[in-house]
Amino acid sequence: MKAVLFDGSKDDDTTIGTIRQAIVEQLGRAGWDEEAIDVRNKRIAGCTGCFGCWVKTPGICVIDDDGREIAKKAAQADLLVCLTPITFRGYSSELKRALDRSIPVLLPYFTRVNGEIHHSMRYRRRQRLAVIGVQASPDRESAQIFKTLVDRNAINFHSLAHGSSIIIRGSGPREIGELTNSLLKSIGVTT
Amino acid sequence: MERLGEKGVVWDKVYTYRLTRTAEGREKLLNAVYGADILVLASPLYVDSIPSFTINAMELINEHRRAIESPKEQKLFVIVNCGFPEPSHNQTALAIYRRFALESGIEWVGGARVGWGMAIDGRSLDSVGGMVKNLMRGLQLAAGALAGDIPVPKEAEELISRPFMPLVLAKLMTSVAGGVGWNSEARKNGVRNRMHDRPYESD
User: Fold this and answer.
1) Chain B: residue whose CA lies nearest to A152
2) Chain B: residue nearest A1 by CA?
3) Which residues in chain A are contacts of B118 at CB distance < 8 A?
4) Å from B98 to nearest chain A CA?
5) Residue A8 is part of which domain span?
6) Given this model, what pLDDT does residue B128 score?
7) Nearest to A11 by CA among A39, A34, A37, A35
8) A147 and B CB contact within 8 Å
9) What's the pLDDT at A42?
10) Domain range enclosing B185
């Protein structure tokens, strides 16, 4: 089973570094083949919404940079893990750059999910999705919006199972390990 | 923006996807933003949220304002548009914009959600017809309030956010005929029969 982790840190974020290490270790123990990608160190242009990946080169972004690799990794993974500093209740621009460039994994055609219109899947493989946000202090309203965003992404990408967690900046390795383990367990990645 | 111009507001338009790419562009963006009294952010919905380059612009604006001892008073009005018929898809993006305003010390004066933006397809609203009459009325109201330095009425947000036609009908049309436009574009590019390609398929 393959897992890909998109690290959406803006800089050397020690809390996100600890989270990443915990997840990599937990996935390794559970027998997953994992790969972590530092999005900020990749050459990924922002998606311009040209829809070329749907109507010019189906399934492949027309921009020839590392964004193509991002979509490929997302398409081939069984588990997608996203890490981000919570930014205005949502994702950092770094993580969002990777997610925006993942839309070639969808088709332009429409389908209904719970009565709502969404795009159809291009691939048969459905991923599990885990998103972890880091913020300075507890904030119930932000947590709700962040969770809603992850829930919406899971619908959009037709995820097999999904979950999200918020970790307070400066948390210790033990606490982080318990939270990541609980999240991975909740979506059936570890037992 | 034309409505604001009609009311005597001097306005300028910048594109975050162009300006966030280079250091020179980012400086131009910050100067343009800081020179304004009213900010109107209009964006499409990408993957249930705001496009990455607009988030990047927001991060830069936030950092810039926080670095200044007494940043100037500014107002923010936002419009988010998605291709799906349901304007509700934009709700999370609006909440994120609102938080950006709060964290940046910018006065939030309102936000509206537009669904089925593809029905406008980049045309001038005047040429689209009756389908966008509520949208145009809402924009007129919002522009009047922004120009008059009074709160944007909830009615403006509601009118802009109102679906172009009954949602049941819009959803039916999207489900049944939504693929026709994509197929037509693909045909022009000679890839109609490759639309379902899976270039990254693996076992």
Assistant:
1) B48
2) B203
3) none
4) 8
5) 2-186
6) 81
7) A39
8) no
9) 97
10) 166-203
pLDDT digits (tens, 9 = 90+) for B113-164: 999 887 787 788 888 878 889 999 999 999 999 999 998 999 999 999 999 8
pTM of the complete model beyond 0.90: yes
Within a domain: residue A191?
Answer: no
A91 near B CB under 8 A: yes
Test mutation, A11, A53, A70, A93, chain B, max B CBs within 10 A: A93
Complex-level ipTM beyond the 0.90 threshold: yes
Cβ atoms of A72 and A37 closer than 8 Å: no
Pair B179, B155 in one domain:
no
Query: Cα A63 to the chain's mean position, in Å?
Result: 21
B124 and B98 in a common domain: yes
Tokens at residue A145, please? 């919006």
| Number of domains making up chain B | 2
C-alpha–C-alpha distance, residues A52 and A75, integer Å: 18
Q: Does the beta-carbon distance from A145 to B99 stay under 8 Å?
A: yes
Rounded to whole angstroms, how far apart are CA atoms B189 and B197? Answer: 15
Q: Is residue A142 part of a domain?
A: yes
Instruction: Check B199 against A60: CB less than 8 A apart.
Output: yes
